[in-house]
Structures are given as structure tokens and as C-alpha cells.
């Protein structure tokens, strides 16, 4: 940490990271997401406050967020599997396409404008959240999952967009699965596993991309902050199971509304980032 920060500022940063960790863990369990929509902006502001320039703060925030998603997604998926709603067949189908999508997205991130993909999420997430909040079951386009080819294409798209937008893919996969007749409980449970499929190669990629960069903080391993993980991970791990269990105490209609509100919040967050650059 830079010398310019006094004790009160450091305590405030620690408190913010602990609160973020609790929120990341609970949301990972409750919504089947990795928590990137929460952790990336929080980590970014923390790294800026501690003296890192934006060109370092942003990839460090995304890389650390992806590393954070690994344990929370694993714990969330394991808890949902114990409760009997994790669809391993879908995860097996998506394993390779998502990996290919993440690799392609990581390559494209150096050339494509991430704001374009955030705008896609704003539109799609806004429409889906509105239909979940006000449209009952009308958001379904089919009662069964598509064939392996189309399902694999969806997996490729999830991996690609997640890598470009710096998110864990849970929101995207839940939207797709509910469109094809999966209950919200099944979709959220399976999406917890999707976060793990995306986070592992994503975090490794960010470690490699930042390896040896002299501008990184001393605690960083590539674009992953080990100090941040040490502070945030225990809080996140503590609340992940609570979130998963809470999801299974809610009715399908309640969980659909909560997820609709979550989608709307993330879409608005991306919209603010596009319009104001923050």
C-alpha cells in the first residue's frame, strides 16, 4: 500500500473489501453467479485509491475477480449439487465450448471495444429482467433444451462474452437455461458450475498476461492480487453456502423476481459504465 494512506483510510478499504466479500459469496450461492458485477468495480476503486493507474487497476480488478470466482463457484455448485438441482449434463456439453470462448474472448479483448458487449448485455439483460419481473413464464421460447450443436454454440457465446465483459457468465447462462424451460432453481444451480468453467482459465490467463509487469503491486501474481484474495476470500466462502440454501427456500416466482432485479441492476451498472466511463 502507498505511504500516503493513513490508518483510517486503510481500515475503510479493509471494511469495503470485507463487505464486498460477503456480498460476492452470498450472490454466488443465491444467483449462481461469480460476483464479478460486484467485485470488479469495488476492486477497481480500491486499487485506484492505493495508487495504481487505471491501466493497471482495471486488469488487476478483473483478474483478481476471476480468481475470487473459483472458490465461490465451486462451493456454490457443490451446495446446489447436494440439493439436487445441478445439471451436470449441461456442464459437460459446455466444458469445451466455454473454454474456447474464453480463449477467443481473451484474444479479442485486445482489439474489440468491451463497451459494445456491455451494451449487448444492457439490452438483453434489460429485456429479460422486464419479462421476469412482469411477464410470468412468457420468457420461455421452448420447453426443452436445444440440441447439442446449438447448446454448444450458446456455451461458446457465454465464454466469449464473459471474457470480454469481465464477468463469470452466470447471468448469461441462467438467462439461456430459463429461455429453454429450465426452472429458475435448476438454471441458477447449473450456472454456479459455469462460473467455475470460466474462472479457472480466465484467472490463469490474467496471471500470465501480467507476469513480470514492474508496475504491479508487490503482492500481485500477474494480474491477481494475493492480498485482496486473503482479505476477501474468507468472507466470501463464509456466505456462499448461506446464499445457496436461501435460494432453495424461495418459490420459483420469488426467485425469478429476485433474479430479474439482479439482471436489471447489472444492466444499469454496465449502462452507467458506458455513458459515464465509471
From TrEMBL:
Organism: Granulosicoccus antarcticus IMCC3135
Any one of the GO CC terms: plasma membrane
Places the protein is found: Cell membrane; Membrane
InterPro entries: TM_pro_TauE-like
Recorded topology in the membrane: Multi-pass membrane protein
Keywords from the UniProt entry: Cell membrane, Membrane, Transmembrane, Transmembrane helix
Superkingdom of origin organism: Bacteria
Family in the record: Belongs to the 4-toluene sulfonate uptake permease (TSUP) (TC 2.A.102) family.
Pfam annotation, one family: TauE
Name of the protein this chain belongs to: Probable membrane transporter protein
Transmembrane segments: 12-44, 56-77, 89-109, 116-134, 154-180, 187-208, 220-237, 258-277
Main location: membrane
Amino acid at each position: 500500500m502507498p505511504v500516503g494512506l493513513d490508518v483510517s483510510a486503510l481500515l475503510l478499504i479493509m471494511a469495503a473489501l470485507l463487505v464486498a466479500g460477503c456480498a460476492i459469496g452470498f450472490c454466488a450461492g443465491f444467483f449462481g453467479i461469480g460476483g464479478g458485477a460486484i467485485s470488479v468495480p469495488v476492486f477497481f476503486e480500491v486499487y485506484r485509491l492505493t495508487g495504481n493507474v487505471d491501466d493497471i487497476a482495471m486488469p488487476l480488478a478483473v483478474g483478481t475477480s476471476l480468481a475470487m470466482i473459483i472458490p465461490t463457484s465451486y462451493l456454490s455448485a457443490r451446495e446446489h449439487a447436494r440439493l439436487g438441482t445441478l445439471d451436470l449434463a449441461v456442464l459437460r456439453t459446455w466444458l469445451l465450448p466455454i473454454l474456447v470462448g474464453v480463449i477467443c474472448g481473451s484474444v479479442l479483448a485486445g482489439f474489440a471495444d468491451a463497451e459494445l458487449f456491455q451494451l449487448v448485455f444492457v439490452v438483453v439483460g434489460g429485456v429479460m429482467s422486464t419479462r421476469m419481473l412482469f411477464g410470468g413464464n412468457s420468457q420461455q421460447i421452448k420447453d426443452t433444451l436445444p440440441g447439442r450443436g446449438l447448446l454448444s454454440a450458446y456455451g461458446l457465446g457465454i465464454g466469449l462474452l464473459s471474457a470480454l465483459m469481465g464477468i463469470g457468465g452466470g447471468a448469461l447462462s441462467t438467462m439461456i437455461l430459463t429461455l429453454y424451460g429450465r426452472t429458475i432453481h435448476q438454471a441458477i444451480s447449473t450456472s454456479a458450475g459455469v462460473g467455475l468453467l470460466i474462472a479457472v482459465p480466465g484467472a490463469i490467463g490474467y496471471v500470465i498476461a501480467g507476469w513480470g509487469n514492474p508496475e504491479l503491486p508487490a503482492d500481485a501474481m500477474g494480474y491477481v492480487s494475493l492480498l485482496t484474495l486473503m482479505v476477501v476470500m474468507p468472507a466470501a466462502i463464509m456466505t456462499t453456502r448461506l446464499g445457496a440454501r436461501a435460494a432453495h427456500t424461495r418459490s420459483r416466482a420469488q426467485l425469478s423476481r429476485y433474479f430479474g432485479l439482479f439482471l436489471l441492476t447489472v444492466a444499469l451498472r454496465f449502462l452507467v459504465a458506458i455513458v459515464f466511463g465509471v
